[in-house]
Structure formats: structure tokens, C-alpha cells
Write a structure and sequence with these properties.
Structural class: mainly beta
Number of helices: 1
Oligomer: single chain
Order of helices and strands: EHEEEEEEEE
CATH superfamily: HesB-like domain
Radius of gyration: 14 Å
Largest sheet: 4 strands, mixed
Helix content: under 10%
Number of strands: 9
Distance between the termini: 31 Å
Strand content: 35-45%
Shape: globular
Pfam family, one: Fe-S_biosyn
Protein name: Iron-sulfur cluster biosynthesis family protein
Mean pLDDT: 88
CATH architecture: Sandwich
CATH topology: Hypothetical Protein Aq_1857, Chain: A
Organism: Enterococcus camelliae
Low-confidence stretches: none
Length: about 120
């Protein structure tokens, strides 16, 4: 699986990234330490890009065992996310509303990929 990041999306992401952050492309499936909702019944896939502080216990990242290399470094994801992604994927910045989108050759996989910071105190 391949994930590229457009130059505009790189700038957008790097402006919010802190030194030492782990980047996770998280599919909202209700599983893992960074769940904001108890469950998800969406027909469309919901992705978000998590900036996980270096202060977070690394053992909490074990669910994110798949790593892809991108233009801005490694991004980790859950194995289940691979079922929702295509062989070639791209994060782009939508020009009108300046929101991050996940696309593939087949079309838009996630129309709005929010950027969310997770610090150690955010984890229950």
C-alpha cells in the first residue's frame, strides 16, 4: 500500500506537527486507545490524522502495526485500515475549504480528514 502527500497537504500538516509526534492515520472503528466514540455505524469510512505526543506510552501504539513511508516520514495505521484503502492513496488539501482529504484513483475515500492532537492526559 502506498500513501503520498501533496505539497500543499505537507505544508498544512507540518504547520501543526510538533517535534517528536507520532503520526497515525486512524480509521474510526471504535478500537484502540484513541477512541472518541464508543462505536461507529458509518457506511463511509472516517479517517483522521492523529498527532500523538512523544510523551504517550509507546505500548499504546501497538494497534497501529502497519507503517507506510511518506514524504513527511512514517505514518502508522491499524491493519483494519488496509481494508478501507486502495493500493495507491493520497492526502491532498482541498483548495476551497482548506481541509485535508484522502483520495485514491477510485475517488474520495474521506472528504474531511481532521488533524487531532493526542497528549498523554487525553487518554483514558
Amino acid at each position: 500500500m502506498e500513501l503520498t502527500i501533496s505539497p500543499a497537504a505537507q505544508t498544512y500538516i507540518e504547520a501543526k506537527r510538533k517535534l517528536g509526534d507520532h503520526l497515525l492515520l486512524d480509521n474510526e472503528d471504535g478500537h484502540g486507545p484513541f477512541v472518541d466514540h464508543a462505536f461507529s455505524c458509518q457506511l463511509d469510512s472516517g479517517f483522521r490524522l492523529l498527532f500523538v505526543s512523544a510523551a504517550v506510552d509507546p505500548s499504546l501504539l501497538r494497534d497501529y502495526s502497519v507503517t507506510v513511508t511518506t514524504e513527511i516520514g512514517s505514518i502508522s495505521l491499524k491493519p483494519s485500515a488496509k481494508l478501507l484503502l486502495d493500493p495507491v492513496n493520497q492526502l491532498v488539501l482541498e483548495p476551497t475549504y482548506q481541509r485535508l482529504q484522502l483520495k485514491s484513483v477510485g475517488g474520495i475515500l474521506s472528504a474531511n480528514v481532521p488533524l487531532i492532537r493526542k497528549e498523554s492526559e487525553d487518554i483514558e
